[in-house]
Design the sequence.
């Protein structure tokens, strides 16, 4: 297993993630909520819309249209290019907020011909360094204040002390200036409701600005984010905060029910007031229906809190190299199984997973990730997806009746294999 993080960076990551777990335990204690009962409740919320999902999604689409959203559907990634061409035809500057769906669809490549920038501080820092995100919630967790201070000097020609508070204030001021000049805001969505609302949670406040200040707001969302009601979505927002960062709730939750409007002059309803004048929602399938059909429906309960990799021992050693840039950890490998080639699984660490189950135990949605990795390995075996070491063991078992090969009382095997 190759090491990725520097030792001092690893210690910092352990501290941050360990602190989040401690905070989570404290939150449940302070609120006098039983963690296991809470998990049961939020799992049931996620399961509800998966019953008769196609019908529930149709109802949601109709309601989005009634509320004034412009609805687009992307069954495959190839469908996104014409949608982007239409929705961004007059775009000059695009402000983007952190979105796991954006990573999934290679948003950077889709926007390569447009002036665009990240507004989440972590993603903004990663973009400055021209690197990849290392965590679903904390993308710049591997970059320390000293390095950021040097990069600020290089990019902005400003001397800012290597102090997290001072660097945060400086960079957030730069980000806000850029948001004010953007004419398109692009966000993800943590949840969408059957009643036709988009629900977004955040701590920084950048998503609120991105969704309201530009004239046009574009929402990228996987169809699996569908829930019954705003109340259900709010409960899930609490779960994401508790298990992601150890908060009882995030600083902001936005509920968007369409473009801004007012009827303050002669009681005539006019669309387009202080907020976005136009709101597009792009509903993305990208193999989600296939996941339903192949027995991976439980996987789609994911709320992207990141708690699975917080508990992953392989992630501590390899960082986002365990799974690949947009496919971090066991969760990422399962996504990649449906969306990438067989070679992807071998290159990105399908057999690095220890099947320890720490991810599943730590998941608020009780997603059996380790069990799913085992299933993928079994399916992969039928397609010849196997490590060279495993192939050699299997060959030795067939030929010699043991995994070590030809054995002798006088010699010790030169290679010791483990299951």
Sequence:
């Amino acid at each position: 297993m190759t090491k990725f993080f520097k030792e001092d960076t690893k210690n910092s990551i352990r501290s941050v993630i360990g602190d989040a777990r401690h905070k989570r335990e404290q939150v449940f204690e302070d609120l006098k909520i039983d963690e296991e009962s809470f998990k049961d409740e939020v799992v049931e919320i996620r399961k509800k819309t998966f019953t008769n999902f196609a019908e529930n999604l149709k109802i949601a689409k109709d309601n989005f249209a009634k509320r004034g959203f412009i609805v687009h559907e992307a069954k495959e990634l190839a469908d996104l290019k014409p949608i982007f061409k239409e929705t961004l035809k007059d775009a000059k500057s695009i402000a983007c907020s952190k979105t796991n769906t954006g990573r999934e669809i290679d948003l950077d490549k889709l926007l390569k011909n447009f002036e665009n920038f990240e507004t989440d501080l972590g993603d903004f820092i990663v973009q400055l360094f021209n690197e990849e995100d290392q965590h679903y919630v904390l993308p710049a967790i591997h970059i320390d204040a000293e390095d950021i201070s040097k990069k600020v000097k290089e990019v902005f020609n400003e001397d800012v002390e290597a102090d997290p508070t001072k660097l945060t204030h400086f960079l957030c001021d730069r980000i806000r200036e850029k948001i004010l000049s953007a004419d398109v805001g692009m966000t993800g969505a943590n949840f969408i409701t059957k009643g036709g609302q988009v629900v977004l949670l955040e701590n920084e406040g950048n998503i609120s600005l991105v969704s309201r200040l530009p004239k046009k707001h574009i929402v990228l969302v996987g169809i699996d984010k569908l829930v019954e009601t705003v109340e259900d979505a709010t409960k899930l927002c609490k779960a994401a905060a508790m298990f992601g960062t150890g908060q009882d709730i995030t600083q902001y939750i936005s509920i968007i029910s369409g473009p801004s409007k007012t009827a303050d002059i002669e009681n005539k309803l006019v669309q387009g007031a202080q907020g976005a004048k136009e709101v597009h929602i792009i509903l993305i399938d990208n193999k989600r229906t296939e996941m339903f059909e192949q027995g991976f429906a439980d996987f789609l309960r994911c709320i992207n809190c990141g708690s699975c990799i917080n508990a992953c021992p392989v992630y501590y050693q390899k960082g986002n190299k365990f799974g690949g840039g947009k496919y971090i950890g066991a969760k990422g490998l399962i996504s990649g199984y449906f969306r990438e080639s067989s070679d992807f699984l071998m290159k990105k660490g399908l057999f690095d997973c220890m099947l320890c189950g720490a991810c599943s135990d730590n998941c608020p949605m009780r997603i059996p990730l380790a069990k799913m990795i085992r299933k993928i390995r079994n399916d992969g075996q039928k397609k010849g997806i196997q490590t060279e070491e495993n192939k050699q063991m299997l060959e030795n078992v067939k030929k010699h009746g043991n995994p070590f090969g030809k054995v002798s009382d006088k010699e010790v095997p030169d290679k010791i294999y483990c299951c």
